């Protein structure tokens, strides 16, 4: 990379962890051209509407419309439609959709029905939100993460959202599958953005159902592997900072630790790995591990984390180029 060029950064992002990291990255590298490849494995159809939780979390967070306390959904939200649906006895009631949020899903569903691809719809929604990054869904094809569970009703596969939101991952997942991923194609612009990227960053997103799902779309992993890649651990001191990522890691037979997640991504994909100070002793063969505070407490702290990830990536890229 020539220092005179605009730095091109690609980030593979899930929801809350990805979105918060991106806000820090945008302020750490205001001149950079940032392309976000968003997870769509969490997408679900509810009330006849297509809902894309991770794309919307990134869009609302970077666009200044997110509910900050919650980390997802709209600020200043009301729930009249949800109450009216409940009054008709129409569920599910466990998925929180507010009135403002409903409008997003109505616009998306209307455009999809008119024949627009999800990538074009996302671009149109971003015309309003101006997230300051280019947000592309990983694929325009339908990929849905399903979870196999076993309870009183026997062994069955349920939608990821039913496991995550309704059951709060309280029933162990026997397996997790990104249904449709093998036949999915990366959305237009995804591979080109990765190929043109100076660096690829993995934010502290869920390694199984966010980043893992994006990497499961044929072509994406191979393209990423050709780049300099630095990741930020979502696991600190043996536990996720928030959410139930440990239940996802357990389902795929991976320990919940910063080291195990780096090993899961693996040599050949990850070049550098940022872990929290609590995990300063972590070493991973073939991967450059650095420790620093990794709690995204506010935008300044998050920008520092993003800058550290970027600095490490540039350092590793230069070392690679001079070899
Ligand atoms: P989701 O789609 O909303 O579940 O969000 P993501 O996939 O983007 O990321 C969720 C992950 O972010 C969880 O595994 C958390 O452990 C991680 N996370 C949340 N806040 C922080 C933080 O402040 N620091 C770090 N390092 N990870 C965080
Ligand atoms: Ca998600």
Automatic annotation (TrEMBL):
It is an enzyme of class 2 (transferase). It holds the Pfam family CofD. CDD domains: CofD_like (cd07186). Its EC number is 2.7.8.28. One of its GO terms (molecular function) is LPPG:FO 2-phospho-L-lactate transferase activity. The keyword Magnesium applies. Gene3D superfamilies: CofD-like domain, CofD-like domains. Keywords: Magnesium, Transferase. InterPro entries: CofD (IPR002882), CofD-like_dom_sf (IPR038136), FbiA/CofD (IPR010115). It comes from the Bacteria. SUPFAM superfamilies: CofD-like. NCBIfam families: F420_cofD. This is 2-phospho-L-lactate transferase. The lineage of its organism: Bacteria, Bacillati, Actinomycetota, Actinomycetes, Streptosporangiales. The gene is cofD.
């Amino acid at each position: 990379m020539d220092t005179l060029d605009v730095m091109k950064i690609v980030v593979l992002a899930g929801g809350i962890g990805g979105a918060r990291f991106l806000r820090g990255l945008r302020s750490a590298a205001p001149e950079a051209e940032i392309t976000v490849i968003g997870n769509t494995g969490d997408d679900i159809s509810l009330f006849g509407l297509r809902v894309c939780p991770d794309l919307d979390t990134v869009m609302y967070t970077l666009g200044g419309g997110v509910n900050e306390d919650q980390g997802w959904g709209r600020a200043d939200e009301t729930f009249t439609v949800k109450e009216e649906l409940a009054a008709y006895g129409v569920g599910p009631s466990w998925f929180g959709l507010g009135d403002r949020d409903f409008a997003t899903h109505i616009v998306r569903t209307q455009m999809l029905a008119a024949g627009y691809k999800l990538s074009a719809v996302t671009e149109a929604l971003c015309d309003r939100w101006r997230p300051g990054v280019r947000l592309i869904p990983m694929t325009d094809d339908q990929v849905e993460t399903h979870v196999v569970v076993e309870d009183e009703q026997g062994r069955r596969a349920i939608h990821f959202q039913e496991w995550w939101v309704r059951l709060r991952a309280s029933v162990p997942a026997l397996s997790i599958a990104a249904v449709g991923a093998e036949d999915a194609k990366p959305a237009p612009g995804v591979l080109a953005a990765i190929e043109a990227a100076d660096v690829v960053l993995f934010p502290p997103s869920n390694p199984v159902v966010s980043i893992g799902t994006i990497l499961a779309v044929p072509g994406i992993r191979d393209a990423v592997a050709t780049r300099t890649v630095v990741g930020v651990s979502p696991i600190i001191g043996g536990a996720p900072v928030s959410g139930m990522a440990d239940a996802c890691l357990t389902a795929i037979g991976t320990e919940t630790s910063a080291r195990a997640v780096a090993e899961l991504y693996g040599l050949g994909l990850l070049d550098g790995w940022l872990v929290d100070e609590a995990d300063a002793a972590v070493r991973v063969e073939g991967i450059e591990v650095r420790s620093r505070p990794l709690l995204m407490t506010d935008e300044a702290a998050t920008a520092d984390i993003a800058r550290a990830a970027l600095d490490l990536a540039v350092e590793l890229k230069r070392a690679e180029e001079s070899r």
